[in-house]
Specification:
By secondary structure, the chain is mostly helical. The chain contains three helices and no strands. It is rod-shaped and about 75 Å long.
């Protein structure tokens, strides 16, 4: 009886950890995709910053942040 309880408990723990890890990876991928699409949507604005005299280093720093 004890072996069966600990076996089921270990299986449930493993499944919860696995599902949690998969969920975490999916969330990280979605956040990265959101950041990339926001950057590509604002390319025109960064071009305007270059035209008004902002240095490339400053623009890259804003992209990084």
């Amino acid at each position: 009886m004890y072996d069966m309880f600990y076996g089921i408990n270990a299986l449930v723990t493993f499944l919860c950890c696995y599902i949690g890890l998969v969920f975490l990876l999916i969330c990280a991928a979605l956040l990265a995709l959101k950041q990339l699409t926001e950057t590509t949507d604002n390319i025109y604005r960064y071009g305007l910053l270059q035209k008004i005299g902002a240095k490339t280093k400053q623009i890259n720093r804003t992209l990084f942040w």
